[in-house]
Amino acid sequence: MDQKTDLELIGQFKGGNEQAFNQLVLRYQERVYWVVRRLLPDHDEADDVVQEVFVKVYHSLGTFKGQSSFYTWLYRIAVNLSLNEVRRKKIRKTFSLDDSPIQHPSDEELPIEKLEREEQTRLIREAVERLPDKQKKVFILRYYEELPYEQIASILKTSVGGLKANYFHAVRKIGAYVKHET
Amino acid sequence: MKHKEITQHLVDYCEGALTGELRDEIERHLAECAACRGELALLQTAFEALQHEPGLDVPAHYFTNLIPKIRQRIDAGEKRRIGFALPAWIGSSVRPLAAMLVLGAVAVLFRILGPASTAASPLEELVSQVPPSDVDSLVAYFSDTNDLLHGTETQQRILEVAPNPALVSDHLAGDVFANTTIEPVTYTDPALIDDQVLDLSEDDVSQVLAELDQSQDLNTTTEHP
Questions:
Q1: How far is B118 from chain A (nearest CA, A)?
Q2: Which of A137, B4, B18, B225 is deepest in the core (most CB within 10 A)?
Q3: How far apart are CA B90 and CA B122, in angstroms?
Q4: pLDDT per residue as tens digits for the range A92-112
């Protein structure tokens, strides 16, 4: 079965083929989810934003000109909407580091190991969440998504040199926080 | 290579991404520079902690069921948080202007409804008239309309002009505001403007104005000293 390109699918969608949109969602839903989830560790909140991202894409796809790749455009929307939600949470005081679900331990896991794992999760989460928005975006796209600097630069519309500096400072701050807290 | 240039390569060095002469040069520098060794130690601490970070769970079948949920939202004609789409013939360059026009309309409304004053801005007038609990409501309101009115910026402004910021901060967000410096948000980045500036319709504007109209009672019920 031939694999249509993003632009082909977008063209079909603009021509009225709703299934083409579904195919785009299928193609990118997991990657979008994990970007959002890293910024919003709670699954339900991430789920809401992921849906919002694709609803926005659905309504905006008609104006997508293809000046950047679809994926770059999609990432940009996902990152921006996620950070909007982070800001909203901060303002509403509903932001809590402790209410995010933590991976369920295996049955044979000892309580001390579970505690250590939860502590490790908390530390990393806190450290990442304390980063300034720009550094947080760069860190998540680089470390978790393993995107090349050039693609991140395209998504965030910034220079590779600036990105490298942001990534350095982000990792450094995470290290300093972990060191300070342990 | 200068010290600053070295630090730019430390992450790559730490990740083992450097080879050849550059790696050798970094290592020579590290051997004689305690500051850079300190930086490297922090990076190593971070990467080591990250390596041991447990994965995040995602519910089974989540991705199988995602499209129907998205379709449901689309079909329901849900008002996105970012508002309605402008007609396609209105380019993105017009959107910031549209957002500013609505802000202007809100400011005019404040001036009409608020107490007479020549010195303070409409927002300052409003905030100065309400007790902290109502400032809280105002901030919450602008949080709900975050995208619509560049709410984060407005929230920041409210806190700046609040008559008793400390009290408001405590009331609002406890440790969040009490212990954290809120970074001013600017929307000069074209990427943000493209994706975050609101597309507005008359319904959006009417909704905002109606809610602000309801807030008139904030001006009349104030007991703030």
A1: 30
A2: A137
A3: 30
A4: 644 344 444 444 444 555 667
CB contact under 8 A, A93 and B63: no
Please answer yes or no on whether B185 and A88 come within 8 Å at the CB atom.
no
ipTM of the complex: 0.75
Q: How far is B116 from chain A (nearest CA, A)?
A: 30
Using CA coordinates, name the residue in chain A closest to B69.
A51
Q: Which pTM value belongs to this model?
A: 0.54
Q: Are B50 and A176 an interchain contact pair (Cβ–Cβ within 8 Å)?
A: no
How far apart are the C-alpha atoms of B158 and B137, rounded to whole Å?
Answer: 11
Contact with chain A for residue B47, Cβ under 8 A: yes
pLDDT in tens, A77-86: 999 899 888 8
Question: DSSP characters for chain A?
Answer: -PPPPHHHHHHHHHTT-HHHHHHHHHHHHHHHHHHHHHHS-SHHHHHHHHHHHHHHHHHHGGG---SS-HHHHHHHHHHHHHHHHHHHHHHHT---STTS--PPPPTT--HHHHHHHHHHHHHHHHHHHTS-HHHHHHHIIIIIS---HHHHHHHHT--HHHHHHHHHHHHHHHHHHHHHH-
**Comparing B180 with B41, which gets the higher pLDDT?**
B41
Condensed to tens digits (0 to 9), the pLDDT of residues A20-78 reads 999 999 999 999 999 999 888 889 999 999 999 999 999 988 888 777 789 889 998 99
Nearest to A10 by CA among A32, A28, A34: A28
Residue B83 φ then ψ, to 5°? 95, -165
Is B143 near chain A, with CB under 8 Å?
yes
Using CB atoms, which residue from B8, B82, B172 is nearest to A164? B8
Nearest Cβ partner of A58 from B7, B74, B147? B74
